[in-house]
Design brief:
The chain contains three helices and five strands; from the N terminus they run αβββαββα.
Length: 143
């Protein structure tokens, strides 16, 4: 029973770790879309309202990504000047690299938690098998 309770508690840790990895992957996709947008619009004025992912609900804008990841920029009437392009591009790349590293650590934590779950499952299975063998031995002795 203790093993099963421990497995249930570990299930919650697995769900949380998995949700964190999923969120990291979603954030990385947003940063990658922003980097692709920036690469395609080099040497052009940017608008913080420029849509970089129209399929997102609501559509994802450049300003959304920059604000979400703390990339500083100044905009006049929603326009981001060409002079800030290199700084923004470097900051977005840095945020992507940092999140990628964090995601690797989170994936390792998830893998470790899954390994613990497998070990606990094996332990419970072994204990149940031993109990079954013991019960069958008792029944055999009664016959």
């Amino acid at each position: 029973m203790i093993g099963i309770a421990a497995m249930d508690a570990n299930d919650d840790r697995i769900r949380l770790a998995y949700a964190k990895v999923q969120q990291n992957n979603k954030d990385l996709q947003e940063l990658n879309k922003a980097m692709a947008y920036l690469a395609a619009h080099k040497d052009k004025d940017l608008n913080k309202g420029d849509v970089i992912d129209p399929s997102a609900k609501p559509p994802l804008t450049l300003g959304d990504v920059l604000d979400k990841f703390g990339v500083s920029y100044s905009a006049t009437d929603g326009k981001i000047g060409k002079d800030q392009f290199a700084k923004i591009e470097t900051a977005v790349k840095g945020a992507s690299d940092a999140l990628g590293g964090t995601n690797q650590i989170d994936m390792m934590k998830l893998q470790s938690t899954l390994n613990k779950q497998n070990e606990m499952s094996q332990m419970v299975s072994n204990n149940m098998s031993k109990l079954n063998q013991m019960t069958m031995s008792i029944i055999g002795n009664m016959r």
